[in-house]
Protein 1
Amino acid sequence: MKRLFVLLFSFLTLTAFAEAASEDGKFEPGAMITHHIADDYTWHFADGVVAYLPVILVDNGEFQVFSSSNFYNEAHELVPYNGYALDHGHIVKVDASGEPLADQAGLYDFSITKNVASLFVSVALMLVIFFVIAGRYKNNAKTAPRGIQSFFEPIIIFIRDEIAKANIGPKYERYMPYLLTVFFFIWFNNLLGLMPGGANLTGNIAVTLVLAGITLLITLFSGNKNYWKHIVATPGVPTWLAPIMIPVELIGILTKPFSLMVRLFANITAGHIIILSLFSLIFIFESISVAPLSVAFSIFMMFLELFVALLQAYIFTLLSAMYFGGAVEEHDHADEHH
Amino acid sequence: MELVTPGIGLIFWQTVVFLLVLFLLGKFAWKPIMNALQERESSIENALSAAEKAKLEMQALKADNEKLLAEARLERDKILKEATDAANSIVETAKQKANEEGARMIEQARESIENEKRAAITEVKNMAASLSLEIAEQILRKELSDKNAQQALAQEYIREVTLN
C-alpha cells in the first residue's frame, strides 16, 4: 500500500513537472504550482492516465457540449475547436485563425471540470457512506454501533453536543443537517484533495464562496427580533451614532461569511502550495541530493495537512454554528456575546 | 488573481450539488441517525433511571425487612421472656407446694410420733403403777407379817399426818 502511494506520488510529480516546463525547457515552479491548484478541463491521475472531461458552454443562450479532448491534438498541443479554444486555463471564443475574439460576452462556462468531477466523486462517497450508516441505525437502532458506524458516531455526537448544542442552544436541531453536511463535505474534500491526483476543491474560492454564502443565508433567515434589533439599533449606543453603526453592522454581517470563505480557501491552498514548493526544490536545485530533505519536509507537511483538513472542517462548522446561535439568541442582553 | 476569482461554472455546480446532498443526507441519513441516537440515548437514560429506581426500591424493601426482622426479634424476646417467667413461676409454685407438703408431712409425722410417745408413756406409767402396786403389795404383805413393824409403820403415818 505504502509502495503504491510512493509510486503514485512519483507519477504525479513527474506529470506535473513535464507540463510545467516552459518553451526553452526550463522548470517554472510558479506555473507548475498554479496549474496544480487551479481547475482544469482534464484530470491527470498519473502520467499518461488522463480523463478528458466534458465541456458545457452556454453561448448566448445556446448549449455547446463536447469533450475537452477536442482541444488537444495527438501531440497534446492546444488546438481550437468549433470556434472555441483554451487560453491560460479558460475557454475563450476564437476566430478562424485561432486568435481570441475581443467580444467574449454571452459565454458562460458550466463545464464538468476537474473540480466538478471531484465534487461528484466526493458527494457520491458521502452519500454511500452515510446511507450505509443510516441503514445500520434504522435496522438496529438500539444496538451498539459497529464498523464504520462506530467511527462516525462519535464525530456526529461531537458535532451535535459540542458544536450545535453548545453554540446554538435549544433550537439546535434544525441546523444539524446543514452542520453535519458541511462538516463532512469539507473534511472529505480536504482529504480527497491530499490524495495523489486529487483536485483542490476546498481550496477553490468558488466552493468556499458557496458554502459561506449558504451559512450567510441561513443566518439571515433565522435571525430573530433580537438579531435585527442589535443591527439597526444596537443597545447601549446613542441614536446619533446610528449613521455609523448601521453600516458597520451591515458590513459585519458580510465579513463573517467572507472570513469563512477566505479562511478555508487560504488554508487548503496554502497547504498544497507548500507541499508542491518543497517538491519543486529538487528541480530548482537540479540535484537529487535535495530529495531526502524535500521528501522529509513534505511528509511532515502531509501530516500537518491531515490535521488541518479536520481542523478547518471543524472551524467552519463551529463558526457557522456560532453565527446561527447569534441569530436565534433569545435573551435581551444580545451584546454580551460581542 | 486567477486563484481568487470564482468561476461561474463551479459556483453553479457547487450550489446545485451541495444543496442536493444537503437535502438527500438530511432526509435519508441525518434524520434517521439523529433519531436513532436520540432514541438510544433516551432508552439508556430510561434504563439507568429504572435501575436507580429499582435500587431505591430494593433499599426500601431491605429497610422494611430489617424493620420486620427487628420486630420479630423483639416479639421473640418477649415470648421467650414470658415463657421463662411462666416456667419460673411454675417451678416456684411447685417448689412452694412441695415445701408445704413436706412441712405438712413432717408435722403429721411429728404429731403421730408425739401421740405414739404419749401412748407409750401412758402405757409405761400404767405398767409401772401396776408393777409398783404389786411390789408394794408383796412388800406390805411381807412387812406386815411382823407386829412391831406394823406398829412402827402406823406411827410413822401418824407422824406424817401431824406434820401436814
Protein 2
Amino acid sequence: MAIDRGFLGYALPPFTVAASLERVTRFARAIGMTGEPVTVAPPTFMKAVEGEGNSSRRMLQAMGVELSRVLHVEQQFDYLAPIRVGDILLVDRAVTDIYDKRGGTMEFIVIESSISRDDGTPVGRSRQVILVRNPTAVPA
Amino acid sequence: MSADLRNAEAGSLIAEYRTSVITREMLAQYAEASGDLNPLHLDPAFARKAGFEDVIAHGMLSMALLGRLLSEHFPAERLCNFNARFVGTVPVGETLLCRASLEATELGSAVLALEAVTSTGTVAITGSARVLMA
C-alpha cells in the first residue's frame, strides 16, 4: 500500500524530555559503557530523546505503515552542543520526505528532529531514513 | 583519551575495538533505555514474520556501539556529526568489530570513515564522522 504523500510535513506536537542522570546513565550502560559517572550524553542519545513516548512508532502508525515492514536504513546526527545531564530538551519532529524506488516495492520515509535546550540553545539535529518494504506492489 | 589526528595519514586506523556478544538481554536493555520497543528486536516469532531467522539488533544499538569509538577518543565538544548507513543486519549472538580510520583532514577538522563488521564478515554499518582537531 502506497504511503499517502499528504503526510509530507506531518509533525508531532513539540515535546519535552529531561536528560536526567538516571536516564542518561541507563542509556550509557545499555550500550556497554561502564565506569565513571556519566555527565555528557553518548553521541546517539539523541535517538532516545526524539523517541520519547514511542514517537517514531506513533508517526508510522498515523501514516498506516506496519511495523513488520519497516527497516531503519540511514541515520545522521549533527551536533551543535553536547547534551549534559540535567538538560531539559525540546524536540520538534516532522516527516520531511517520502519517496519510492523499484516501482513502489521500496518506499522511504525521512523523519527529521531538531533538539534544543529549554533556554533555546540548539543542541543538535537528527535525520533518519526508514525503508518500508512493499512486496506486493506491482513494479511499474 | 584523544586520538592523535594531526600526525595520522589518510587511510590510517585511528581506533578499533570488538564489542561483547550482543545478547537478547542487551537488546532488551537497549529497547528499554532507548524507548525503541519494536518487536523485531525482542520477539523471535515477530522477527520470523518479518523475514528473519531470529531477532536482530537495533540498527541504533550497533550505531551506539560504533559511537563509543568517538566518545572514548574525543570529547563531545569536538564531535560535529555522525552518520550511518545500515547496510547489513546483525543477528542476536553476534559481535561487531568497530573501526575508525582517517579519511581526510580539512579546515581544522577531520573526517573519519567508520564501519562495524560482524564476526562472519558482514558489513553492518558504513558511516562517517567529522571531529574538530584539538
